[in-house]
Write a sequence for this structure.
């Protein structure tokens, strides 16, 4: 049994989390309530973030940057017309989470906070160079997505901190795509790939999901690859750099060996998918 | 013999019409009551404590804290259940762990409390003192010298057949005909392989559950999710040493079975709790418990060798299976024995030898699951048929036509084949799947054929004419959603020439229904249908006697007319069933009741033909046949297989309700697709690693092909009701075999391990050179 | 531990006061405290879809929704859809198509389908399959369910 508390502001939520040692913040519930139903967590208090206006909605700032409130549902992200070009990858990733009904419930903040390595947002956000806004007992701060995951289900969030928003740089006109290899539709990824081309078409940003505790992104290797996208050897060298960062698990979705094998295959297939988009455009 | 398209329109007669199941209406309105929807005054809720160990001796329990927890009324452990043991073939299983635990997840204790939460909370407060024992996690380990023994008293257990049990060997079966050893010399081509198949979970959408209530005299009423109220009664009474007359078993609507509700799940524990609490207790399993505690499809290791002449004529096959039994025998001996009977497929193979060993392991019991042993051996056998065809340049249809069994042939070890529409099934699939895809690209086509029995054991029907001439039909067969109530009512209505909607079907009740072994092994339409037809015929005969007296004419002059009337041939005068039944109820002779029981009694084994040792089912049934074609795509990035189109043709003798047959073919195929491509219970040591729908994946609507073409072939069986044979499993059996053959076509690689995951298929493509590694 | 909290819900168009354990899910509250039984507990993990209900017209999992969060929102279950013409049409086509077998998934499927037709009155077969991909059916193989939703949509369009 958990007492449900419904704060009206981020500050109240943070205070409630600080007050109750066994409290947990409740975002969409798609993961946390499922875990509680299975007896995996037993919070004394659930801090319901549903009534906090600040956590809702997707907004554009004056520079064109996008701020996605942490309580934004996957269905709204998947339907967001502001996520175009280089940010389309995030919209696509949102649309592949679980299924339509769960997308009506789950939130970006909840998913990111849970930091399941096989979930869809982290690689997409890594590809978009997202920044997380968080609030906690020590006040507010920002965390780059690249510094966020620190181990298996371990993140840079401190005790009592909640994610309030995810911010993205302004979209640029360049194709991006997300592909997930999963056993069946809606499953967590066995491996996934988020990719966006540079606006000039000469380079790319790519992140691999589900092949380590966090998304795999190698910005140095991206720099090396720049200008050589039409060189298959260079692309495979790039994929090898990402594979070298991988720390995949053997689990029910696939072996570590299979995941390593998928990394270059995903990179090449998503790149050709993007190339097709470019030709069509 | 004919090809029929489903006819949704109901005109006259009942048999052959796609009548919508009457239970559909309450189901679409959300009003159907399943076990979890039942409540009784004063009812408690139960919960189970599961064993954390795969193999351990129970030294004692400390229940103090749990008994003092809020809401707790009663706790049951192995100390409460006596030494009774249950089991369909070998009585080796207590109601709840007693003395030892034999797998992770085995129920060790159960609590009845005011709420489910309180019961679950109290379970966590129970302390069990275990002495851990080394565990057996595979059949190979179980057979090894010096292996820890699961059932020390195995020799003393009651067995219903010659099991040959010893050590961890639960049973062995050996069958042979012809002379395999010397036949290999006559073969021009021989293929050989070792195949492994995985454990598959049933995943009925409704988890198992039960509700027990005890009356003032101590007699128990038990509702449960089940496939046979009579197997529930037998299992509970054997394991709790109750006289069967002290237990009444009933069933609400059942949210599917596929085999996992055929034998006991937690009914004995629920009854033990209710007896101890002296109050009604409802126990509904969680999905995780349903995965960990109920049962699953057996993992098989199959060694198979097949030989043929240069013209493609099959000469010999040898098949050896090693089967993981899990901790208790359950239906396993029957499954293994049946798999061996099926291992030759529907082919003339003059020299055939099959042997199997079933080995206890410290895992949950494996048991009945749609197809029961057939899909495992078919995965090996149908690939070998294709391999032989490939080597000899015979296409998949040609080699199968050349060797298939014909009407009047004998099946392996002896059963005579009545009707056989396999040739028509092959024709239907070949014709429909001919040529390229709509976009002109070539198909990756795979074919497999199968046969399956319907028959097995006892059944009955009681047909009562009510005062107004309408009918109550009582068979004791549990409708698990597949529509057997509808089909049986159609058979009854047809025999009585009455409108379908004037036949009411009684819910199974061990107090009032005739015995029915169960809704399993594709048997209800065939066996229970026969009993229904015979019982209805008795009612017609009784009505005829009345009509003869009422119309003052000889019975031979009378005819049964549409709509429940009996009249004199050539004359308009007739009497209605209502008039006849009124007379019978109030004046002459007594109410009209037809009652028929029967047991399938054609022997399986022909001793003049074959040698059979340890055959668990000595009388199996009649044969349905099917051919299945699939067209697949394989993704070059991931190796994942997508089934694009399916052609499923089945000879079901006579489709009593074509739409329901079609849905069996659709649903069976998709469950088989899951088995072929995704589904696998995985153990991490002794613990099931994926006991949830998060981690164990079944096909969703997006993972199945839209184009599933079904062809119902009707080659009436002389013994079946209106010619009908079973249809419940025939659509699943061949799925993995056909998909494996299509994957071989697409990738050039043969696979001997199920499921055909992207990972395995990609590895095969890299080996065969149909794809290449993408690396720097 | 069995302390109950009072909540007011708008359930199937009626204001309902219900005392339910603290932190209970909507599925628990409906079934144990209100005997609203059309939503089923198939997995309690949000995967199977048998507990799908509408909140403010959108399908969600009752097993993942806390009752405390439902205050101020309209909850609809199959019990409350008796007067809905679209649902009646869907139900009739499901009955006739063979899309109903064991029935355990059926309410959830119909609720997902009902909302789909709200969003897209003339869905393609692919759209129907996508919309229903969060509702597992283990009996039918989905074919007859998709048939039913498509033919219901066609009839409603006329």
């Amino acid at each position: 049994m958990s007492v449900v508390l419904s704060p009206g502001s981020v500050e109240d939520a943070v205070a409630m989390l600080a007050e109750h040692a066994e409290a947990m913040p409740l975002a969409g519930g798609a993961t946390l309530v499922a875990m509680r139903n299975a007896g995996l967590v037993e919070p004394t208090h659930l801090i319901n973030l549903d009534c906090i206006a600040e956590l809702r909605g997707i907004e554009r700032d004056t520079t064109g940057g996008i701020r996605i409130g942490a309580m934004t549902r996957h269905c709204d992200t998947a339907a967001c017309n502001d996520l175009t070009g280089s940010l389309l990858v995030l919209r696509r990733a949102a649309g592949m989470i679980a299924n339509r009904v769960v997308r009506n419930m789950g939130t970006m903040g909840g998913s990111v906070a849970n930091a399941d390595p096989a979930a869809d947002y982290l690689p997409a956000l890594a590809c978009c160079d997202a920044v997380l806004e968080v609030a906690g007992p020590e006040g507010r701060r920002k965390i780059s997505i690249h510094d966020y995951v620190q181990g298996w289900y371990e993140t840079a969030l401190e005790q009592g901190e909640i994610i309030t928003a995810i911010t993205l740089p302004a979209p640029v006109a360049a194709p991006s795509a997300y592909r997930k290899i999963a056993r069946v539709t809606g499953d967590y990824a066995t491996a996934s790939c988020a990719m966006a081309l540079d606006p000039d078409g000469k380079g790319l940003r790519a992140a691999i999901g589900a092949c380590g505790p966090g998304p795999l992104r190698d910005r140095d290797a991206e720099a090396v690859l720049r200008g050589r996208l039409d060189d298959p050897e260079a692309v495979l060298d790039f994929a090898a750099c990402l594979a070298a960062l991988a720390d995949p698990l053997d689990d029910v979705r696939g072996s570590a060996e299979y995941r390593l094998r998928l990394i270059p295959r995903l990179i090449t297939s998503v790149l050709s998918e993007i190339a097709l988009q470019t030709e069509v455009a | 013999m004919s090809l029929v398209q489903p006819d949704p329109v109901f005109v006259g007669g009942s048999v052959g019409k796609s009548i919508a199941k009457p239970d559909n209406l309450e189901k679409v309105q959300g009003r159907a009551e399943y076990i979890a929807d039942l409540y009784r005054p004063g009812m408690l809720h139960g919960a189970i404590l599961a064993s954390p160990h795969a193999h351990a001796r129970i030294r004692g329990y400390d229940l103090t804290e749990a008994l003092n927890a809020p809401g707790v009324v009663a706790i049951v452990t192995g100390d409460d259940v006596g030494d009774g043991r249950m089991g369909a073939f070998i009585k080796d299983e207590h109601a709840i762990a007693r003395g030892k635990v034999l797998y992770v997840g085995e129920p060790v204790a159960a609590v009845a409390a005011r709420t489910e939460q309180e019961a679950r909370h109290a379970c966590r407060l129970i302390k069990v003192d275990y002495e851990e024992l080394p565990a057996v996690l595979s059949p190979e380990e179980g057979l090894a010298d010096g292996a820890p023994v699961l059932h020390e008293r195995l020799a003393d257990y009651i067995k219903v057949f010659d099991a040959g049990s010893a050590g961890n060997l639960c049973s062995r079966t050996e069958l042979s005909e012809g002379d395999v050893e010397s036949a290999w010399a006559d073969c021009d081509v021989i293929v050989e392989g070792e195949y492994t198949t995985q454990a598959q979970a049933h995943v009925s959408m409704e988890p198992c559950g039960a509700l027990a209530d005890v009356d003032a005299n101590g007699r128990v009423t038990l509702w449960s999710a089940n496939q046979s109220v009579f197997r529930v009664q037998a299992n509970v009474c054997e394991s709790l040493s109750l006289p069967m007359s002290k237990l009444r078993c009933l069933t609400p609507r059942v949210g599917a079975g596929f085999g996992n509700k055929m034998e006991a799940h937690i009914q004995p524990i629920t009854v033990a709790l209710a007896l101890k609490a002296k109050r009604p207790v409802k126990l509904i399993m969680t999905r995780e418990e349903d995965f960990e505690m109920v049962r699953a499809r057996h993992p098989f290791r199959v060694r198979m060798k097949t030989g043929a002449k240069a013209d493609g004529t099959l000469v010999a096959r040898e098949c050896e299976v090693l089967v993981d039994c899990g901790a208790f025998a359950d239906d396993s001996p029957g499954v293994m024995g049946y798999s061996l009977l099926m291992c030759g497929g529907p082919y003339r193979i003059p020299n055939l030898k099959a042997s199997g060993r079933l080995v206890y392991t410290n895992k949950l019991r494996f048991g009945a699951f749609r197809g029961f042993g057939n899909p495992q051996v078919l995965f090996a056998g149908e690939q070998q048929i294709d391999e032989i065809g490939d080597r000899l340049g015979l296409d998949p249809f040609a080699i199968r036509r050349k060797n298939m069994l014909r009407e009047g042939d004998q099946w392996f070890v002896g059963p005579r084949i009545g009707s056989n529409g396999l040739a028509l099934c092959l024709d239907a699939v070949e014709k429909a799947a001919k040529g390229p895809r709509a976009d002109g690209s070539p198909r990756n086509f795979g074919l497999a054929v199968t046969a399956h029995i319907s028959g097995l054991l006892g059944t009955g029907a009681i047909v009562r004419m009510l005062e107004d001439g309408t009918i109550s039909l009582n068979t004791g067969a549990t409708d698990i959603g597949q529509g057997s109530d509808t089909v049986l009512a159609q058979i009854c209505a047809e025999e009585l020439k009455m409108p379908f909607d004037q036949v009411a079907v009684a819910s199974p009740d061990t107090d009032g229904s005739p015995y029915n072994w169960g809704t399993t092994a594709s048997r209800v339409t065939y066996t229970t249908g026969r009993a229904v037809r015979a019982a209805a015929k008795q009612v017609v005969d009784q009505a005829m006697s009345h009509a003869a007296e009422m119309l003052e004419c000889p019975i031979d002059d009378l005819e049964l007319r549409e709509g429940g009337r009996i009249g004199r041939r050539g004359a308009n005068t007739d009497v209605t069933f209502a008039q006849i039944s009124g007379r019978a109820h109030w004046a002459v002779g007594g109410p009209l009741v037809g009652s028929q029981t029967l047991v399938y009694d054609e022997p399986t084994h022909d001793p003049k033909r074959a040698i059979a040792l340890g055959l668990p089912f000595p009388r199996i049934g009649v044969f349905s046949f099917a051919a299945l074609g699939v067209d697949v795509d394989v993704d070059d990035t991931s190796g994942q297989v997508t089934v694009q189109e399916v052609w499923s043709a089945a000879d079901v003798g006579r489709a009593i309700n074509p739409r329901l047959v079609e849905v069996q073919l659709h649903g069976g195929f998709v469950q088989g697709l899951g088995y072929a491509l995704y589904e696998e219970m995985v153990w991490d040591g002794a613990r099931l690693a994926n006991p949830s729908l998060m981690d164990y994946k079944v096909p969703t609507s997006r993972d199945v092909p839209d184009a599933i073409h079904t062809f119902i072939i009707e080659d009436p069986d002389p013994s079946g009701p209106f010619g009908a044979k079973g249809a419940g499993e025939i659509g699943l059996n061949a799925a993995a075999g056909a998909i494996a053959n299509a994957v071989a076509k697409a990738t050039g690689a043969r696979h001997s391990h199920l499921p055909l995951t992207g990972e395995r298929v990609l590895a095969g493509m890299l080996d065969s050179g149909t794809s290449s590694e993408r690396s720097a | 531990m069995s302390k109950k909290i009072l909540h007011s819900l708008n359930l199937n168009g009626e204001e309902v006061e219900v005392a339910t354990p603290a932190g209970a899910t909507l599925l628990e509250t409906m079934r144990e405290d209100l005997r609203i039984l059309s939503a089923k507990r198939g997995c309690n993990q949000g995967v199977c879809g048998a507990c799908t209900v509408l909140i403010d017209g959108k399908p969600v999992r009752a097993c993942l929704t806390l009752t405390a969060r439902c205050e101020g929102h309209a909850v609809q279950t199959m019990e409350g859809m008796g007067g809905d013409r679209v649902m009646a049409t869907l139900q009739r086509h499901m009955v006739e198509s063979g899309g109903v077998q064991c029935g355990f998934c059926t309410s959830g499927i119909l609720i997902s389908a009902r909302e789909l037709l709200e969003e897209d009155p003339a869905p393609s077969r692919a759209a129907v399959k996508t919309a229903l991909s969060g509702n597992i059916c283990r009996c039918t193989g989905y074919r007859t369910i998709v048939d039913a939703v498509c033919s219901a949509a066609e009839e409603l369009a006329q």
Q: What stands out?
A: Chain B is about 25% helix and 25% strand.
